[in-house]
Request: fold
Amino acid sequence: MRALRLALRSLGREWRSGELGVLLLALTIAVAALTGVGFLVGRIGEAVELQASEVLAADIRLGSPQPISQVYLDEAERRGLRTARSTALLSVVFHGDESQLTNIRAVTEGYPLRGTLRIADEPFGEGRPAQGIPGPGEVWPDSKLLASVGGSVGSELSIGSATFRVTRVLISRPDQGGTFADLAPSLIMNAADLPATQLIQPGSRVSYAALFAGDRDVIDDFKLWLVAHKQRGERLRDIRETSPQINNAIERAGRFLSLASLVAVLLCSIAVAMSARRYVQRHLDAVALMKTLGATRAFTLSVSLLQLLAIAVLAAIAGSAVGFVAQEWLVHTIRGLLAVELPPASLAPIGIGFVTAIAVLAGFAVPPLLQLARVPTIRVLRRDVGPPPPLVLLAFGPAVAAVVFLIYWVVRDWLLFAGFTLGLAGFVLLLTLAGALLVRIASGLRGSVGVAWRYGVANLSRRRAESLVQIVAFGIGLMVLLLLGVVREDLDADWRASLPEDAPNYFFVNIPPAERDEFVSFLEERGARLSRVLPMIRGRMTHINGRPIDSLVFRDEDGDRFAGREQNLTWAAELGDDNRVVAGRWWTKEDFGKPLVSLATEYRDSLGVDVGDRLTFDVAGETFEVTIAGIRDIKWDSFQPNFFVVFAPGVLEGTAGTYMTSAYFRPSEGRVLAELARRFPSVSIFDIEDLLSQVRTVIDRASIAVQSVFIFTLFAGLTVLLAAVQASRDERRFESAMLRTLGASRRTVLQGVLAEFTALGLLSGMLAALGATIAGYFVATRVLELRYGFDVGVWIAGLLGGALLVATSGWIATRSVVRQPPILTLRGG
Amino acid sequence: MSREVVLKAENLTKQVSSPEGPLTIVRDVSLDIAAGDSVAIVGASGAGKSTLLALLAGLDLPTSGRVWIAGTDLTRLDEDGRARLRAQRVGFVFQSFHLIPALTALENVMLPLELAGRTDARRAALAALDRVGLSARTGHYPRQLSGGEQQRVALARAFVTQPAVLFADEPTGNLDTVTGERICQLLFELNAGSHTTLVLVTHDRELASRCRRVLHMEAGRLVHELPVRTRVSSGS
Reply:
């Protein structure tokens, strides 16, 4: 109780007399950086997830070839979730004499639960969000359907036994998805009208879906319930199983953000360690005195620990507040760039703030505090007596433990953790050795420079250990900033490369072989950029290594799906540049005609097959037994036609199939598409512009998050600088007073300070550029799986930025030291 | 004059290691100091005065020999035990004042009382500051006080616990002559008023001469005790 009273009282006093300011500031910025990142990343992550949910039109979706029991929907509604049904089937739609096979989707009120239906008043018109669903008696056909049957808004369409009025044109719906199963023209109608059409008869191929959306916790619980209760044949999809393009973007963004916030954690820890060291240095006398006056070691330790705890609490509160305000401000400034409002921030990052403050203090401030309590009382008589040297384990153990804890806590991935930690340890070692070498070289040069530089450089080598700590700290601070720049550039470049502005935005499926050449020339004449044209044959897998599919058990649901359903097969002579062979090989001309097949990695992983295994396919009654020659890793976000299963040429040519391709059309070329739909009525047009813009939005959001993390990291880096400069402030104050007493002008002292910090900055910058180059290579190629490009700019930015940043910060922080009249300092004022 | 011995040292020796080998700073010192006495330890720089003071006050441990304060053998206590003994029995005044910069004058004086668990710390500290003439500056921080004022706060802090023994290390060393003289006077007045035993280390012959006993140190040994100055008006 006495310790608490004293701790709190002196805490207040020390804060007013500036003692604890730096420590609190460092920790506050640390917490602000982390919570700010946490708030923002949380919000953007949630927005990204919501965005992904839109692709399902729900948070989770239960699909089945059989009608779905109302029990599920009742249970979901009982839990407060929103629900809707969607029923899809293929049927012919008539407009007068014209007809078209159409994917008909009958939906209930509330659909879509996530995302929006976009509609227009004319085919291929600009879409706007729809309010609700078609009313009874109304249908919303898509542009392709209207173009092929020659209808327009106001026309009457016959579906089965009923007739409907076209009231809008469907431009897009969120769940049009990335599969080609429903590539026929589509139409949306009210589920209440479905019975009147009499389309659903015994044996009809109908896909039923129940959609669910609501609070995440409730959804997670409900999903567990659903998994336990769903019937065989009912397939559950959640947002993690949406199209591979979006998954890729989320995964990359998540990894990068983790990495960036990790950097902020690291910088803050350095700043706190430096501040704590200074705090201890400044309290050695007071603690020695308290012990002289009768305080026990436990008492002095309690006072310090309680003060630290109070600082942690203050920093967590203040830091969280600053972090919150900072991200609010950031969100406000980027609001115009976001297509959708971000969801409100959750309070979870405040907890992160507290844990961080405690962990960082425990790791970096408690060990020196333990030392503080060991200061001998004799120090009151002999100021040169300090605490006995600490046990190495005690000095560095908690710091290492805190770093390990924080890193793992942030990345939650052992591989990334191991890579980062090893890299970090190696880098710190390298930096320390290189720093020592540079300080030695610099001190050798001091005979050849003027008095100010001599004083500055002499300071570097005289305070060798301190200089080394500062160079390593600055170096790491600069390195992570540079590294973030390097990686961000690579990431940006890679994203831009993988999603160029003119990425294919339309898929064309069901191109009859007889019309293939004509179709290609039609598109080329109209300036569309075509990707490859591949055959597409429907087939079903029947055996693996001679064993019937039905007798096999697969690793996951995807395995059942791949094995059990009819799927699209192709053959190709050339390996696309968006495909990479990861096992086995691609074929040569000599292999053409041999029963060989190449599989996608997803297919191999789900079915548990590998190179050399034999697969049997049934294609329109004909059996093909083929051997797996190779496995390909497919870059799905190229938006080129790609197939899980590719045969060698000369095997499937005799079977009946069609062709598919993708192409880029400028958004204004709707008229061409309408013409194409008339000219090639059997070709299905699949508009992926919408999906592409969804992916782009996700990437844009991730980029904004990265930018903001970058800003927080920059602040964290500056705090390290401030803490480092603060750490040597007392010493500098005394030296400056001594020099000025000896006749040095203020200008000379200032030049010396500038020289020292510039040299420090240059050395740090040199090390940082080296580190960023090496680490950037590993992060880009190993962690983010991107191409790495060497960048001279990193070295220029490192050296110039280091010198400028350190010299400016050093000058600002030491200005008052130099300005203080020497007599005040020498009197100990 | 047979008074109770409040401070006793027996064969005190302090050795430290140095680059040239072991160095003996205090060599085989024995002494008895009676309650209420005032003793100055004088000698050249490096003679071992401050080390002896540290050993007598339990701030440091001797390599060999023993020290008793008010009958308690310091060398048998651990660090916390010695701290508790100091809280109850010992006061200090230092050359560089050693006030805690984060605490006000009043809080600095309250500190030893609080450490000793006294509940009337504030009242006693205010009274002590009043005795040293600083009742108007109780809310000031050390850096807002002159050297003389800081040392007066230190005196108030030293006497506020009414210690059995007060150790002073060059109490006027950092002060100008006039201020030093005032502090010196105050120190002896307070000492006389509280019947505290005073042990001080000083270069200042004038200050030393005010003490009842003057012990001379040379190369770590107590070489001789200068004659007692009868003119010392300690009232003891």
Residues 46 and 563 of chain A are 34 Å apart (CA to CA). Confidence is low (pLDDT under 50) at residues 178-182 of chain A. Residues 506-687 of chain A form one domain.
